[in-house]
Amino acid sequence: MSNTKKQHYVPQFLLKRFGEGRKNKEKLWVLDKRTGKVFLASVRDVGHENKFYQYVNEDDVLDLESLLGNVESFTAPIILRINEIGKLSKNKKEITCLSYFIATQMLRTPHIRIEMDNFRQLLISKWGANPKVHPDDPKTIGEYGPEDSKYSSLKIMDNIPDFAKLLQKKVWTLCEASSQDTFIISDNPVTKYNMIERKGRGNLGLRNEGIEIYLPISPKYTLQALCPKLALAATVTPQISEKYIKALENGTPMLQKAENVEFLNSQQVIWAERFVYAKAKKDLEMPLDMLRTNPELKEGAGVRQKG
Fold first, then answer.
1. What is the pLDDT tens value at each position of the chain, 307 positions in all?
2. Following CA atoms 166, 183, 294, 29 in sequence, which dihedral angle do they give, to the nearest 10 degrees?
3. Domain boundaries in the chain?
4. pTM value?
């Protein structure tokens, strides 16, 4: 079992890019969506929970801290180099590493567990606490609790290789903010967006046509992975085709307009379970305005019980 008590669900090496200060003493600005409070905090003290990746009972023991540490150790130098040279490598091995990192980040946050807890509560509110999930299950729905969600969220990480393979099929580019704009990040930093509606069905699956996946890796750069059909459409769109084709060929970043940066930042606010992080306090003014005009965003995205 890992002896590390404070276990980060957003890697410190990533959060440090959004902080300032001496090495290993970096601080960043934090917005608590639930309370609306903004405060300065150490990178070491955000994006973590005690023993977040450890589960122990009489039947099973899970400890994923070392596994996640290995994923980070492979990926951190790649992301460092991207930030330093401002270029996305076309090396297949590096894209594979990034795909595993993003797949891992999608599954490792509190958002997953809270989704499971909320879904269980929705079932209980509709059907009561006595039904069973499966006829052979000794427990009723009402007998499950947060520890069961924790166990399930750790076991679901077995799917990381499958998620990574789907991400490897996307078209990868690098987005760049201008000197006047800044990217922010959250406690659930991999965001998904799809402009193609699927009535009655979700449209945010990694296999869905039109899916867009984003991960900010610094205030200046965000990784982008697009559905191939959407990427193909971008290559023939007059306003962006030349720059996009160059980005595909050379790995050079796509400079984003202010409204594009604002859109990507708004996705961080929407997808954040609770906390939004920024390098400068002023970068949290837009998220605060979003919360004032859309108070429902105080809760994370996804399954939520109404009223």
1. 556 778 999 999 999 999 999 988 999 999 999 999 999 999 999 999 888 898 887 777 888 888 898 999 999 999 999 999 999 998 899 999 999 999 999 999 989 888 888 888 888 888 888 888 778 888 888 888 888 888 888 899 999 999 999 999 999 999 999 999 999 999 999 999 999 988 877 889 999 999 999 999 999 999 999 999 999 999 998 888 888 999 999 999 999 999 999 999 999 999 999 999 999 999 999 999 999 999 999 988 775 555 4
2. 120
3. 6-294
4. 0.92
